[in-house]
């Protein structure tokens, strides 16, 4: 059975339709990603899934039923740092959050998991962006939830801090937890998520695993070679494209095409192979860049 099912979920703010009748399912133990540009409806959707925002219509089911008290006990939400109380240090915050739940994960374990030891006595406002996100994740895990919601957890972090955070999410997934994440970073979605729902203007425009979506929309890869190889390539009578100082040819079978190139005497010394990524997919689906 699916852990969570979203059925015809809709949210309107006055005249504006923020989320337009979307449906999808989330499997236990998976990392589910909601991907879309600014204003696509990600936060509105995740807040309805968390039970924070009432839908205008449609429903969310937890283990096949309307979410009740057991749902609230079994989920963790990564809050924004602005919603933390003032003047408490990280350790005190962990203790305070722990007191809200009957079941707690030992604080010592969370300190180790989220690497909090070096700043436990500091207030959150004096933490770096990456440290703050690790603290917020530890707070979301205090009740040892089976389902964790992360809303754009790495926005604004530097590349190293983002990588550290991804490692942490992978550790949590390794423990068997289910993660629901919104992001507008394609590399994050591609690395972490088993299943993606891509939304734009409140509607689902595609869903599936990153690999499946890319294979479906981009069955070919581009082989790029220096212009100096043009003559040898022309003998192959394949459709060639010139892109800057390189020649490109589309390949749906790399092994076979490389064998042909070698046979033809084409030098592979400076070859590049480009596989489409989610950014390419998003542009193909919507005609615009994800961050636009
Ligand atoms: N409380 C609200 N009142 C009115 N309009 C709202 C409200 N919350 C969201 N919206 C609108 O609904 C649409 C979807 O917003 P939402 O915050 O869900 O998008 P998002 O994908 O999370 O964007 P971002 O990546 O910028 O956070 C936007 O057009 C937004 O302006």
UniProtKB/TrEMBL annotation:
Transmembrane segments: none
Protein localization: Cell membrane
GO cellular component: plasma membrane
Superkingdom of origin: Bacteria
Signal peptide interval: none
SMART domains tied to this protein: AAA
GO molecular function, one term: ATP binding
Keyword terms: ATP-binding, Cell membrane, Membrane, Nodulation, Nucleotide-binding, Translocase, Transport
Pfam family name, one: ABC_tran
PROSITE patterns: ABC_TRANSPORTER_1 (PS00211), ABC_TRANSPORTER_2 (PS50893)
Ranges for domain ABC transporter: 4-226
Principal localisation: membrane
CDD domains: ABC_subfamily_A
Annotated protein name in UniProt: ABC transporter ATP-binding protein
Source organism (scientific name): Pelagibaculum spongiae
């Amino acid at each position: 059975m699916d852990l969570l099912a979203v059925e015809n979920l809709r949210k309107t703010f006055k005249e504006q339709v923020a989320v337009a009748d979307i449906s999808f399912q989330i499997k236990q133990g998976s990392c589910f990603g909601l991907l879309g540009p600014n204003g696509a409806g990600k936060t509105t959707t995740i807040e309805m899934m968390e039970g924070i925002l009432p839908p205008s219509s449609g429903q969310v089911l937890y283990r096949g039923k309307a979410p009740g008290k057991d749902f609230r006990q079994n989920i963790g939400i990564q809050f924004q740092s602005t919603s933390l109380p003032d003047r408490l240090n990280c350790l005190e915050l962990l203790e305070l959050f722990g007191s809200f739940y009957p079941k707690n994960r030992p604080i010592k374990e969370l300190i180790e998991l989220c690497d909090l030891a070096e700043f436990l006595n500091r207030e959150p406002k004096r933490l770096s962006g990456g440290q703050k996100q690790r603290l917020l994740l530890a707070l979301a895990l205090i009740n040892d939830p089976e389902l964790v919601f992360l809303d754009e957890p790495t926005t604004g972090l530097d590349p190293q801090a983002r990588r550290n955070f991804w490692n942490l999410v992978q550790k949590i997934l390794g423990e068997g937890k289910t993660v629901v994440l919104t992001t507008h970073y394609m590399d994050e979605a591609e690395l972490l998520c088993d299943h993606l729902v891509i939304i734009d203007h409140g509607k689902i425009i595609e869903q599936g695993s990153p690999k499946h979506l890319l294979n479906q929309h981009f069955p070919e890869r581009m082989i790029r070679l220096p212009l100096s190889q043009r003559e040898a390539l022309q003998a192959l009578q394949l459709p060639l494209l010139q892109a800057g100082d390189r020649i490109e040819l589309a390949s749906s079978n790399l092994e076979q095409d490389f064998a042909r190139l070698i046979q033809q005497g084409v030098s592979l010394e400076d070859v590049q192979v480009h596989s489409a990524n989610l950014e390419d997919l998003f542009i193909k689906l919507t005609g615009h860049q994800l961050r636009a």
